[in-house]
Amino acid sequence: MTKQAPTCPLCGTERVWKDGLRQSRHGDIQRYICRECDYRFSERSEIPPGSNPDRGSSYMEPNRHGFNRRSGFSNHQICVSKLKGAKNLVEVESRIEKQAAGATTTQADIQGGIIDFAWRLKKEGYNESTIRTYSRYLGTLVKRGANFYDPESIKDVIARQEKWTPRTKTLAVATYTLFAGMNGISWRPPKYEQTRKLPFIPLESELDALIASAGKKMATILQLLKEVPIRIGEACRLKWIDLDSERNALTINEPEKRGLPRMFKVSARLVTMLNALPRKNEYIFGGTKANNAAKYLWDIRKRMAHKLQNPRFLSIHLHTFRHWNATMEYHKTKDILHVMKRLGHRHIENTLIYTQLIQFESDDFHSAVAETIDEAKKLVEAGFEYICTHENIMLFRKRK
Known about the structure:
Blueprint: E1 16-24, E2 27-34, E3 40-42, H1 57-60, H2 92-100, H3 107-123, H4 128-143, H5 151-160, H6 166-182, H7 204-213, H8 216-227, H9 232-236, E4 243-244, E5 249-252, E6 262-265, H10 268-275, H11 290-308, H12 318-333, H13 336-343, E7 365-370, H14 373-381, E8 385-390, E9 393-399
Antiparallel strand pairs: 1-2, 2-3, 4-5, 5-6, 7-9, 8-9
């Protein structure tokens, strides 16, 4: 006699498939996947005799915790990068109809809505990091009691978050605005005024201390970010073909945030550090993820802040290297268009902030003179700034 498949514990449908066997200390456990809501579960009747049902719930019952604390996704979610091949996703329109009819939002509705939202963002060409951020915000709103088919509940939840900064609330509003627009939901977004702050600019000695205390690969990443104003995501996607060791040049062919591709001249020291890395695949840093690099830097700066009793280290992030490089470049050249090109910005408004960051503690200068064009050229290359010409002598200065 053929054994009848169980019903889905979430949506109650009998349209389930077998989803392979799961090995356990009690033997092989039959897994199932719901064809309606993609929920994975095991049949309760297969609990081995003598085992504790509560302890066995991790493999015999659906996950009770709902969302992963860090990402906002259910623990059995399908990765966004694999959504293209996922089968039988529930259409968003059917969920909206159920909500209009007064049906209760189920776990399947929640996880399916987040999956559909992420997949639509991917089809619209959004960056993977942006998709993760928006999906995390949507999951957080639901975790804190919001119904993402009810705009008023979204407003209530955002308004109750007293510890959220205006910037965080603005991102939450932007996330739901995208979700509502994709699903035909009408809502009036609340307005939160976001004040723009100047980024923290550390001392060069502080950056050098972090580089010196890092491991081989991380030290190379930090040295790269110090010399070249690129984002960590762009650094992680660098390939060996992008490095020209003979000319000491590095090409950014996969910019983030719709930035412009660009080429940089780098130091011989950095080229040596890059070539010393193992060539495991086509990527210079072997497929290192931006999140892992950020976590590693967190450990380094925390250790350095304690070791040197300097809390300024705790304010240094991976993006701080980009701000530092752009600030120093503008201070040296006073050419905002040059800085804009190095940063890959499409709009100069994003670059103008660096004109406000050149307040230095010292007002002392080194002075130098040049009588010929070649002498003047060498001084400019050394970072000296031209002041004036007196009796055919060119005067230069550089801040100490």
